[in-house]
Design brief:
With about 240 residues, this protein is of the alpha+beta class. It has 2 domains: about 90 residues, no CATH class; about 130 residues, Gcn5-related N-acetyltransferase (GNAT) (Aminopeptidase, 3-Layer(aba) Sandwich). It is built from 6 helices and 11 strands. It is globular, with a radius of gyration of 18 Å.
Length: about 240
Amino acid sequence: MSAIQAYVRKTAPRGRTTERVGPFLATFSPDTAHPMLNYAIPDDGAKPPAAEIAALTGAYRRRGLLPRLEYFTDVAPDLEKLLVGAGYRLERRVPLMTCPPEGRIDRPVPTGIRLRAPESAEDFRSMRRAQNIAFGEPAEAGDAGEPSAGVGYLLAEADGVVVGGGLALEIVDGTTEIAGIAVLEAYRGRGIAAALTAHLTRAVHEAGAHTAFLTPGDLGIGHVYARVGYRPAGECVHLSLS
């Protein structure tokens, strides 16, 4: 678990500014106040006094942002109680699932569906638009641009229409995250999400990753990931202070 948390500490700051506050790495996205893109990550074993929690809160308040944390509970088991005592509330608990190469289960691409890498700016916009709609976010994604080095994107098409997508983040010390798996509601139940996940997972394993992990947003999609070979390995908590 510590290795996966270390992975997040290394990758979450990409494209963000950071500030070290006691045992916390606070990250801030310069172009958005979206809470999912502005959060702090604790050090392993963090047991901060009230003054350090207050300092972290202040770092976000000064920027007009919601004070917020995301972390795996196993690496800092005493922290949640301390944060709740300081007024933070639990937003949600998210399962952590992992898949090693030997545990991966390949899944076929459903009939009538094509999986491919985006090839143009329009492909990226269409994929992001489908993901946003699937996640209940505003549809307009703007210019998604080209992928960062070491990041793999995969979209799903039905009759030339982009109906979903997902991505594999960069591999760091043999670990990577599979994220953004999303399929438009009208196309769910056909095995598209499982195929996207399986293809991305196989790609990162073949590229040298020994651990692929993901954090399913709900129990239903967790069952999909289980069919690809992912197994529960812990939990991630999201806490914030309104």
